[in-house]
Amino acid sequence: MKIVSYNVNGIKARLPRLLEYLAEESPDIVCLQELKSSDETFPEQDIRDAGYGALWHGQKAFNGVAILSRGSDPVERQRGLGGDPDDTHSRYLEADVDGLIVASIYLPNGNPVPGPKFDYKLNWFERLNERAATLLAEEREVVLAGDYNVIPNDDDVFSVKAMASDALMQPESRQAYRRLLAQGWTDSLRTRFPAGGIWTFWDYQAGAWQRDAGFRIDHLLLSPMAADRFGDAGVDKAYRGREKASDHAPTWVRLR
Questions:
Q1: Percent above pLDDT 90 for the chain
Q2: What is the reported pTM?
């Protein structure tokens, strides 16, 4: 079973690339982030024509998450995170897919630092951690997949100096991510590549793709029962180099 996290950076702009990816790779489950589409304009029929059922939690022009399942319809479990009734951002969607619990996550960027956007990022992270603890208590196979907007380690970035002042690398961001892992989650890509040096994102600016100046912010975390089925993990990097591609590459874990 191949489970993919894919920040498409605008599903309408990137729909040809997404459909291409589904046709060529046939992943079983795909968690999408940054749809930048309202619920009404989500391309449901195109996705269904490609052989996938879908759930989505849209927001016009910003944010937005979805879960696609090959040959079946995901069953919604939760839309959004609790703990802040004033939070209207579409950043969390959770579903049951053939007995597996899957969440698509688009964590706030948090820039500039310091400021209200960074505070929102940290508060949102704590709410995610609370939900993750609840999921672990179910003792089920769970995958938390998404764009976490956190560079966990120094070897997860092309240049520590270049990103030192960014919200993605602040000590508070990293600590929140480590608190999540400490609950008992397995970072699948880190397990496969313990020495780091694997990127999932390359900025459109300054020739980042051409220079391979990227970093790792897309993560698929496994509950203990899911980790027992861990087979492999990786990044379908070549898709970042295609015409009008997202600035993220599809990142995946394979469960036996």
A1: 100
A2: 0.98
